[in-house]
User: Fold this.
Amino acid sequence: METLTIMNGDIYTPTHFGQGSIVIQNDTISEITTETHQPSGQVIDASNHLVIPGLIDGLIHGGGGCDTMTGETEDIETIARAHARSGVTSLVLGISSGSMTQINSALTAIAHVVDEPVVDGSRVLGSYVEGKFGSLAKNGAQNAKYITPPNFEEFHAMWAAADGTLKVISVAPENDENFQFIKHLATYKTDAYNDIVIAMGHTNATYQEAMAAIDAGITRATHAYNGMSGMHHRELGAVEAVLSHPNIHAELIVDEHHVHPFWGNHLIAQKGVQSVGLITDCTELAGVPPENWKASATYVAELDAYRLDKGAISESDTAFEAGSTEKYVRDGAMWLDVGRPTERLAGATITLMDGVRNVVNWGHSLSDALTMATLTPAQNLGVSAAVGSIAAGKMADIVIVDDNLSVKTVILRGKLIKN
Assistant:
């Protein structure tokens, strides 16, 4: 039996445990202790460092220069390795709206990685079909051409392509007549659908529709505020339903572009850290040094933005379909069609550790920020028995960081990853 001991670190489980040691046997945490004893096996001295759980990003669209939609297993492996290096040890991979052929190809590639974890790569918890069943009125960066109402024909095709690894399905509930799609999945999610999580996103639902949909079985809000009706002083919508209903987990994009810190803090204050999960909704540029992607991009001075050429990133990205859309990076975020009437925000370029740092800078304790980036999402996704916190019997996904949350060491499934 292989033993690894992390000693002398300031431990967050994610709540603050304090100075202590963590003993790992094979891939599992066996003990957390404040006692000093002679360790056996490999030892890591974490003096003057923080020891935290591996982060869980519940919605990403890429990383390391690769997009989740290519249908190539190698690209999914690259994404997993890029995020692992940043301290994100569990991921849910987003599927954008596209043709059923493209979506199913992407789902199948992701399923291969779920079944056979990547060496030195984040654990892929499954896929997240985000835009396919959304609203045309709130499509955002999703390709409107392929958006359809929730329907069983396309869902079951996606379920088959994903081989049971489809983790989250997002719908616009106003397009689900009598909520029959939502109710069916909620009724049979354990027996037939591997505890799939039903989310509400890219929705133009009224407040009443959104509240009723949550009662019908929705438990997750896709990137709260973004792609949602509401935020009006006389007319309530889906945003207000997310804020007020106790039975829905709210994703919060924490790149400070998608959601202003004022509204991010309001969401956390209203719902509490047990109901908010930090995400990045990041693109393929996550984990890519700016000097790398800038080398193959074109700076457009009048827009103060970098245009990403097709050859610089994934060729199969649906945003480039028929040459109708251009991708840009401006002020640290990805945008589509900058300078055109169709200009819109498309995704983040950060990793989740950057987002945790942002939330701490908003005034939250490290314990609270970590809870929203580890245990809370693990609970909503139904994986908290294995990951999401440092506890005896759980998987040894652990990150050692300095006081600025710069990653020093990543331990994934009990083993140090190679950078």
